[in-house]
Amino acid sequence: MNHTREVEVVVIGAGQAGLAAAHHLRRTGFEPERDFVVLDHSPGPGGAWQFRWPSLTYGKVHGMHALPGMELTGADPARPSAEVIGEYFAAYEETFDLRVRRPVDVRAVREGTGGRLLVETSDGAWSTRALINATGTWDRPFWPRYPGQETFRGRQLHTARYAGPEEFAGQRVVVVGGGASGTQHLLELAPYAAATTWVTRRPPVFREGPFDENAGRAAVALVEERVRRGLPPKSVVSVTGLPLNDAIRAGLESGVLDRLPMFDRITEEGVEWADGRRVAADVILWATGFRPVIDHLAPLHLREAGGGIRVEGTRAVADPRVHLVGYGPSASTIGANRAGRAAVRDIRRLLAEQEPVAA
Length: 359
Known about the structure:
The protein is α/β, with parallel strands linked by helices. The chain is 25% helix and 22% strand.
């Protein structure tokens, strides 16, 4: 489509944060397709959840918070989370008539005319007065670089391409990363693999006891401080530690979660440390996290010298028309809900201020 369509708000992304924002737009009087549009590049509903490996069942999901206005009830904990949450998001979109457009790739957001933003997509262009960016991180897996990486004769893959433990049967696997994905991979792989080795840059921190509201607030505040300073956000999990549940305890006792410090180089046959220690490997599995998907915002020059976008609440400090939800402190399921509501409240105020005053 070659013509440019006009709306008040464009929402990019239909994961938890994008759907929460669309819900709050809807309930405060914005009509889909007329006043706002939701653009999503995924093939179907479910956000990043639709791409999770089949062995990540719903019962293993840590703290999936319901979307606003509709609870997720009666889910079978033995079913893959991709199926459970994909169906839930699909029902949510239909119930609230959010009319998500997919698959639509957003190529760039740049300055338009008349104080509006121009959103260039694979489905034509949209002119908008405000933007809610809810693109998450799944499409930008982080791959660290180490000397000799290109010489490794085995297979390297990232969590984003992990499909389950069966394909690693009889293989020697090095898992890199100290987050929840890394520990989940190790616990799943151990019964199948010939050997597993866990390496992390820093010693993992395991959290004892309940994670109450005060602890959650303190963790979010630490992440929030980084984005307020214009630094790239860290995950909330990076400051909360890993919950010490029964599965983790069993992994520690069995030696599966016996962590080694980060290796210094990769060889043809495996990995090696400066002190001469070596581990042979058939596979290196990088459970090293993701980075925010924000390259399409580059024409707006929102990045600070520190490499991140400075955000107050959800609003980009460099451009009050742009809100980032599911970014930094709102990158948890409960944080995404709250961020969607806050962004809509702020945008309504911005649009009201821009309305011409009647004579």
